[in-house]
Fold this protein.
Amino acid sequence: MVDASLIGAFILKEEGWEDYAGMLEDALTVDHAVKEVGNAIWKAYTRGHIGLEDVKTKLEALKKLLSKNLTMFPEIELLDEAMEIALSHKIPIYDSAYIALALTKRASFSSLDETQLSIARKLGVPVI
């Protein structure tokens, strides 16, 4: 189970991105990861880190990754548990949805977000 921070770092080839490839094989994620990673690509472009051709290349890479390696889980099915986690731990619901998915599927969780990882650990989710 992976979140958008890890997917985005892989797509944008951020430091350490090669290490994430194994975590993205046959992984599960929340469907809103598409918007989060798309936003990260947009942000990289608006900050001048990548060009317009890079945006197109990265979007294609994202679509390929999503179609071949990732299974997306509908966020609506996680809403109640995600809100409970968000309220209890004072994190945004879009972050808590990943933790809710890991709990629901009894899956290990991979993220680059230390706050999410810390909360996941507290809730008994194995983290990678």
Observations:
- The longest strand covers residues 27-30.
